[in-house]
Amino acid sequence: MLRKHLTVAFSKEVMATAFRVALVVGSILAIINHGPKIYLGTLSQENVYQIIITYLVPYCVSTYSALKMFQRVKDAECRSSNED
Fold this sequence. Notes:
By secondary structure, the chain is mainly α. The chain has one domain. It contains 3 helices and no strands. It has helices spanning 2-9, 12-40, 45-83. α2 (12-40) runs antiparallel to α3. The longest helix is centred in the last third of the chain and has 39 residues, at 45-83. It starts with a helix and ends with a helix. The model has no long low-confidence stretch (mean pLDDT 94).
């Protein structure tokens, strides 16, 4: 089961979608949370770490959502094959 989930999580489609989501959502959140410091160029090392995490969170959420959908599709396939 874990191997299947990792295969899905690291598939090109899931990674590409998660990257795009992280790019859009992470950028919006980084600007909201750190906009003035980004504009003024006064980011501390701590701020940079926070921004990296800001991008990682939507990437992980998108990947998790894809895994949950994969699991639901597999469960539905199992139920429909058992009904036959």
